[in-house]
Design goal:
Elements: E1 2-4, E2 9-12, E3 15-18, E4 27-32, E5 36-41, E6 44-50, E7 58-59, H1 62-71, H2 89-101, H3 104-120, H4 123-135, H5 142-150, H6 169-178
Parallel strand pairs: 3-7
Antiparallel strand pairs: 1-4, 2-3, 4-5, 5-6
Helix pairs in contact: 1-3, 2-3, 2-4, 3-4, 4-5
Length: 179
């Protein structure tokens, strides 16, 4: 099925899917499968998207629309699928922290720049940088996040967890008591 992309989303079988904002106004070919959609532009496969079940669902990927939102940050406040723009709870916490220290317009711009950095560099590294800044109560700025993400000294991607050995004899006591 061919479809012209009117905005950064398209409707397929009563569900909404995001597509790269660079495709706005272009005609794409959509191949509908039982479990996924395939998007083609000029006979070139661009993307495979998981297919939603039911109706009135939405699958919005922030990477598809972040370029557009950075250019029009005022659209962020009332964006219908805004919840999809917080890839993890840490991103939401970062946005809330920005809102505490800045007026809404500036907080929106800064958050979108952080999200844009995530799309360009690494969502995991940005999440780690946010974690470090929020936990150490350092000022949360776009520059601070960018510095951590691009530095070789970025926080490690793992957290050391130590689990003490389990004393299995305590289970023997339970079994003896149940007799």
């Amino acid at each position: 099925m061919g479809s012209t992309i009117p905005s950064s989303t398209l409707r397929v079988s009563h569900n909404v899917y995001s597509v790269d904002s660079r495709l706005i106004g272009e005609t794409v070919e959509i191949h509908l499968h039982a479990d996924h959609l395939e998007i083609y532009y000029g006979q070139r496969h661009l993307e495979t998207i998981p297919r939603l079940r039911g109706e009135s669902g939405a699958l919005i990927q922030y990477r598809h629309i972040i370029d557009w939102l950075v250019r029009k940050p005022g659209a962020f406040e009332n964006y219908r699928y805004r919840a999809a723009l917080f890839p993890s709870s840490r991103f939401r916490m970062a946005y809330d922290a920005l809102r505490q220290h800045h007026r809404r317009e500036q907080a929106d711009k800064d958050y979108l720049r952080i999200l844009h950095l995530s799309a360009q560099e690494s969502e995991t590294r940005v999440d780690q940088a946010l974690h470090h800044l929020l936990d150490s109560e350092q000022p949360l700025t776009v520059e601070a996040v960018k510095t951590l993400v691009l530095s070789a000294d970025a926080p490690p991607s793992y957290q050391e967890v130590s689990i003490p050995p389990v004393d299995l004899t305590s289970y023997d006591v339970l079994l003896e008591e149940s007799r």
